[in-house]
Amino acid sequence: MALILTAHARFRMAQHAINGAWVEAAVRQPERTALDPQNPALTRAWRRIPERGGRVLRVVFRPSGSDIVVVTVVFDRGARRWLP
Known about the structure:
Blueprint: E1 3-5, H1 7-15, H2 20-28, E2 32-35, E3 43-49, E4 55-64, E5 67-75
Parallel strand pairs: 1-5
Antiparallel strand pairs: 2-3, 3-4, 4-5
């Protein structure tokens, strides 16, 4: 199963210095997941990133056959309050 990054995801990763390994870890071993409320075909995954002071990375993705398409990535400021 391969991760495919959209142009938007690559742009956000470059813009915010987000490591590809962090994105992969969030997708494969998330601390929490939920369906996207606006588009149930998308899944949101959250994972803390110790290398960034425990900030929480949110990755939005969808399956595409046996692959996973990463739509966007962002550090989620609000997630620290409710992520266990």
